[in-house]
Structures are given as structure tokens and as C-alpha cells.
Predict the structure of Dipeptide/oligopeptide ABC transporter, substrate-binding protein.
Amino acid sequence: MAERAANLGVILGSPTERTFEIMRTAHFGLKTTAILAVLGLSLTACGGNATKTGAAQAAADPETPVEGGTFTFAEVTPINNWQTQAARFYEKANVLNSVLDRLTYYDVEAGKLVGWIASEFEANEDQTEFTFTIRDGVTFSDGSTLDAEAVKLNLDALGKGIKSAQIAPNVDFAAYKSAEVVGDNKVKVTLKRPDANFLRSTSSVTAGLVSPKTLELDNAAQSSISKIVGSGPFVFESEKPDEEVVFSSRDDYAWAPETAPNQGDAYLDTLVIKYLPEVASRAGAAQSGQVDLVRGLQPVDEQVLASSGGKVYAAEGVDLTTNHAAVRIGSGKLEDVKVRQALQVAIDRQAIKDTVLSDSYVISGSILNHKAPGFVDLSAELAYNPEKAKQLLDEAGWKPGADGIREKDGKKLEVTVSTSNNSVVIKPAFELIEQQWREIGVQLINRAADNTFLTNALVDDKVEFYGTRQFAYGGLGPVYAPANNNQTLRADPELNKLFTKEQSATTDEEHLKLVEEEQRALVLDKALTLVLWDEVQVYGANSSANVEFTSGTAPIFQGAWKSEG
């Protein structure tokens, strides 16, 4: 355990020696077929199985997990729709990660995709057929068997949706055609077109496996956490709407990813999810022991919590895009690529890091996070250069007005950004960008963290920027390709040709080259995304809590434990 902690990049020390205790994320690894190396698919894992023990032994060895106890996790907002394919938000994914298993798992430390419910998986050369061998002995919490037939039914629901329940297909399964049970507990998936990212999509929480009986329910029932039956380590126990959800551990759980430190059932007896929307209260709740873990810690609270003996976990979002401002050109003000490129280099990212963020955050080098497969570092081209920005705006015909704000054809270069309030740093970050852009003659109207404004802005292409980050299990194509994608609200023919080529890649070299081209096109050539910082979710914990995280920043409660009670 001590060696594994070192590999996770833990900074340890007493409050007087260190002001931070940041535990970087990583996890699980499994044996995988040679085809994954060809595709460049990668994930990470932690090695070594943790031995279950009691509190007495834990006192002698603080690195040894303790059996039993109740673990309380504070989320940001309540959830009223738990339907699996709708789990593209942290509040849902962080809980469903402990209720639903997936076919595969992305192991960040190992940098590869590994098996989970599928003990083996392989693809044909042109990436149109994928075969999964299903583990024996896996059951759903209602006692039914998670076999090849159950997997086929789930894949059909993911790939085709469920019309009778008005459930849409999973966007990452857009190439899906059919699945059939073949051989001894095997499932073969056939795609309508090549998709080199399909295997990666099967590791997503939105591809969580539910019981066949759950798939028969209507949309309302599938949206209820009390009705969802999975094969995960925790099972629904009770709920107080908008207040808390309680889960109990499954004693018979024995099919974690192969390299998971804990190969058996959860150390914990009970998992309680509470809701704590007040940002200023989160660090105090963890410090006082009111909760064991809380998501959404403010940078100013990180040092306070750590110096008082608490823990700060920076869970890296390898499965997501970076935090960025997606560009919409409906107003016409950003239609000229030179304007977009000017705004890209008019962002002083280091100043944002120094002023608004903390050491938990890493400045973006691309639309992909630094540890994501295929990441290419564009930092040099993204360097702060206000003089170049002014030159590009001049070339685009935007000239400074009497008040310093640029004008063209009677319009001022005023642009608006909209975001949700899910990130505690998003509003102050755009406040600083507002100041930086004012220096080059651009007025930013900052509606970041205004959820009321976001409701309409999300689908309004005249609101120039949407600040966000997105899960990208199926690659960048599903995020940006559809005409109704919620990033740019438009389809770009040149980008879509590139996405199609990337999905059809059959060698590692070709795949990585095309992933690099996609990043350069999105960030530099077309500047349809203004990248800011790598996605990270910052959690605060009391001194007793021990937890690791997935590549999607979800807490792994199956391996979590408390050193006291």
C-alpha cells in the first residue's frame, strides 16, 4: 500500500511540514488483447491486493484497510434522474460508479483499457466487430445472472435506445448495429461503420450494465435509483428526496477489475450520499467529521483543510475534455477564425492558475487532458500573446472604438459566456479573462455559474461561449461531430471527415496521428474551443477517510475505508 501511494503522487507530511496532502488519481489494470496496443487504447491501474483487517491491526499499520463502518459523501446537488445513459454529470456518475459495473475499465496508471465484466475482448482489423468474453459467476443484486444474454440486451439498449421507454441511444454507441451471443458466454458486437473508440466507450459509467428486468421498466422507473438493479458493490437501501440516498454493500461482490486493490466486497458496510450545495460549508463539513468526503472544494479552502489535518484529493479527469469555452458563431462576431484565434492567445492561463486556481490544477495544453491517450502538447502555440491577438483582430477588421472596445460594421465586439455553477472556479476564472480581453478591445459579458441564464443559452448559438468539460469516452467525434452537439451547435464538414478517418484507424501510429490532427484543428486551426485547464475534481476529506478515484474522477467506494469507525 505504501508503494502504491507513492505511485499515486501523494504528498505526505504533518500540517507543519506540508500545507497540502494531494492524492492524485489512478487505478486498476487488467490483461488485455494485442488489438488494444494496435489502437493505442490505454488506461491505468494499481497493483496489489489489499488485505481486509480489523481496527486493531489498522492502528499498528495505518496503511491497512479497515473493515466496516458508514462512509458519508457530500455531493453538490440532488439528482432526480438516475437513468444510466443520462449519467453524464458528476452527481450521477459518482454514485452509479458504485452501483453499476461495466464491460471494461480504463486504468490510468497502466495507461490501458482492461477487462471488468468482460474477462477478455478483441476486435477485428477494421474495427467493425468486437467480441467480449463474459466472466462467470457474476450476478445482479436481485440474484439474476449477468451472462452473455444480459450483456446483449444492455448493448442493444445502449446502441439503439429503448423506444417504448423513450430512452435515446448512448451517443458513444452511434456506430452500433447489433449484438449476438456466440460461443461459450461470449457476445459479438457488429458496428455499422468502423469505430476505433468503441471499446473505450464500454468503460463509461453511461455504459453501466443493469438487469434485464430494469431494461423492461418505463423511463420514470429507470430514472429512479430505487428501481435500478446493477451488479455493483453497493445496493440501494433508502432515500430521502433532495436530502440523502443510502446504500448497503453486497457481501457476495467478487468481480472487481483484476488489478483493483480490493478484489472482494466493499470494506464499508454503508454508503450515505448527502447533498451540500453551499460551497463555503464544504471544507468545514469535512474538517468537523460531519461528512467523510465532499466534492467541489474551493482553492482557498484547500490549504485550510490540509493544514488542519484534513485531506485534499485532486481527482484528474482523464476521461474528459479539458475545461474550455466552446465557440458558437451564430451571432456572426466569431465567424472569422482570426477573431477566435486572437481570443485564444489573449488568455493568460498562467495568470489564471496563479490568481484563481491552486496547485491541484494543471494548465491545459490541448482539448485533451495531459494524461489522456493521444494528448499532444500545444502549449507553445497557446502562449499568452496580446500583441498577436491585437494584430489578428486588426486583420479581421475589428478596430478600437472611442471606448476602447473594437467595432466592425456598426457592431461592438461584445461576447457572452455561459456556464453551469458546477465548478467552483469557473466564474472567477472568466472574471479574470474578462479583464485580459478588455486589454485587446474585447468586452466579455460574464454569465458564468448562472444556471438560470444557462437554460436557454445552452441551445442558443448567438451566445458565443459555453464554458464546460465533456466526457469523451468515444473520442472527440461524438462531442463535436453531430449538428446538434452542445459544444458548437453545428457540424463542421472538415472536422467530421477527420473524425471519420480517426475512427477508422487500424494501426496505433495512424490512430495517434489522427488524434493529434483533431486536436490541432479544434484548438489552433479552427479555434472552436478555447482551452483553459485540465479537468480535475477537488475533494476534501477528514483525516480518517481513505479513497481513490477513477479516470472519470468518481470515488471508488468499493475500495474506500475509514481508519476510525
User: Anything to note?
Assistant: The longest strand covers residues 176-182.
